[in-house]
Give the backbone structure.
Amino acid sequence: MKSAEKIAVVDIGSNSCRMVIYEQSGAALIPYFNEKAMAGLGRDLSETGRLSPTGSELALQTFHRFRAITASLNIKNVRAVATAAVREASDGPEFKKRAEAILGAPIKVLSGADEGRLSAVGVSIGFLGPKGLIADLGGTSMELRPVDQDAVGESFLLGPLARAQDTNLPFEKRRKTMRKILANSEFVKTAAGQDLFAVGGAWRNVAAVHMMLRDYPLRVAHGYKMTQDDVENVIEAAELARSDKLTREQLLGVSKRRFDTLPHAALLLKTLMEQLSVDKVTISSFGLRDGVAADGLEVDGATGLLDAVPLFLRSTPQSKLFGRELYSFIHPISKRFKKSETLLRAICSMADAGARMHPDHRAQLVYEQVLRAPVPSMSHSERLFAAYAAASRYTFKLVEDPRYARLLGLGAKRRAKVLGTAMRLGSVYSGRSGAILATAKLAIKDDTLSMTVDKAYSDLVSETVGRRLSQLAGLMQLQPRLTID
């Protein structure tokens, strides 16, 4: 099996310097290595107009490490970008020259429009056909841009480092300043009511705090949705943390490094939502770095998901073929699942995920693995559905983790169990062989679920196959019929 190519993206931001190494195969981009240093290059920018001296030295030290890692992995494709701090600082060109010498790669200093475009590319591969507005918050600036249009983005100095002088002001005064700045946005005037995607670590931290406050068990930022009231709850918690030790400790437990910027990020998100007249925002873990990695590749959310699952699971050519044939096998009953073709294809490609795991634990292990897989284009409800279905492929009596029981409705669980049981039937009959599975067909007629097997393969029809067909038919409230033709 051919190894996936590796792409290293170095993102030199105002707050952090990060390197993400992606494995790329087809349209898939799966993080292989992810490391950051909170250098704070833009910490002094608003006062001095220059990069932080201590931040610059820490960043340059970090780049020595990054180069050693890319060299040891023999990565030739290194894409380095710098954002607002280097762009705005008077000593930015000097820092760029020193950094390039250490990294051994050119650094592209992005304009605000560049940042917006690349963040849009990132969001476009993180969701299925997203439409609406992207807001990408960095340490120094915030970029706004439509995700689905070729438009020049807007950039505002609204990052926490750029507004450091506001830290001790009352929250309402800080909101007033934000509203005044956002009044200059053409997108705020024209994009009212559209979907909003929030990109950037500061807003992922807002989501993480909200998950903690509501004791939400699926701690996956990507695809997490928040209402204005949800964001307001985070603002209230951040304000309470100023005087209440227990609340402060709880918030520090979520993210110590971003604790100081939490009030600003939450206030800005709530203000932006109010100005745009949107009640819900979707958090995107896909953004600038993913856009840099994907730029120039033929990638979108659907192909990214379908190529990412086999790469994440380290699938063999045989298991890939089996996943494709499994989708063909379940296709005649696919309308019962009320899910997109893309998601169903992805779930079928997950059907072999537990094949090499211990049989006593594989269902639970697969369930957890699918829930947290770093793949694009699945909402939280779709992750839960996929995990339930993939686990049900290995057991008819899945004991659900009580932490997640309330997150998926009974109807969705039943449909996921039907899908898992159908995948189990296909697996049992074929011995996980795609070529063999192609010799069997499912069909529904009246009140009967029939499985027709090519007569040349009649020896594969065992008592277990008949029992699994009966289980599937029972779940679907149909009568089973097994036919050799």
The chain has three domains: 5-109, 113-289, 301-484. The mean pLDDT is 93. The CA atoms of residues 231 and 270 lie 6 Å apart.
